[in-house]
Amino acid sequence: MVYLYEMGVAKHKLLLTLILSTLxxxxxxxxxGDTTSYPTYSxxxxxxxxxxxxxxxxxxxxxxxxxITTSNKMTENDPVLFIxxxxxxxRDSFSAVYKGILDADVYNxxxxxxxxxxxxxxxxxxxxxxxxxKKECG
Length: 138
Fold this sequence. Notes:
The chain is mainly α.
């Protein structure tokens, strides 16, 4: 596998597409099983998101700034940014983070009737987020 730091800006588009594809494939598997604790999501995380993002091999300061700015333009996108950064950083802990977000009260104001609706909502937000990153940061 080619490391991110070896990729140019054009290849970041491919990376984001691959992340989204794998993310969507992982969603169904991530929705089953026991849930580990989900860290309380707060503005402190967003403040630290830049540091988390630039610590990912191959993610430049400019790319991370664009990703975070894009996320901040979207309503209720903090959990999706958290998923995105966690997946890019550590795929092993991704499932636990995703399950935690589905089980947390983050999107309770939408009054989903079941877990599938909540999962589809998060998947949709993730797809829109990656599309906007590709459009604005590519």
